[in-house]
Design a protein that fits this description.
Alpha-Beta Plaits, single chain, 4-stranded antiparallel sheet
């Protein structure tokens, strides 16, 4: 899960870059879905990647406009499996 906090005054520039260049996601990283706050200042994004390095490569494309918080998550079936391994 990625939380994107748009830097002040950068919302228009973010959407212009997206229109021009797309998400600029490197190979091995998959966009799943996103939700944006109504004030267009914060985006919650689910990305899938085999490695953190791919996520940080993607972040490098946007860090001049956005501050990022990366929260590793798993789906509920993975969590159930992990909890069984810990018992």
């Amino acid at each position: 899960m990625i939380i994107e906090n748009y830097k002040p005054g950068k919302t228009e520039e973010i959407y212009n870059r997206f229109k021009e260049k797309g998400r600029m996601i490197p190979e091995g990283v998959e966009f799943v879905d996103s939700w944006i706050e109504e004030n267009l200042q914060k985006c919650y994004q689910v990305m899938r990647s085999e490695s953190e390095s791919g996520i940080y490569e993607w972040i490098d494309n946007w860090k001049d406009l956005v501050d990022f918080e990366v929260i590793p998550v798993m789906d509920s079936s993975q969590a159930s499996e992990a909890s069984m391994k810990n018992h």
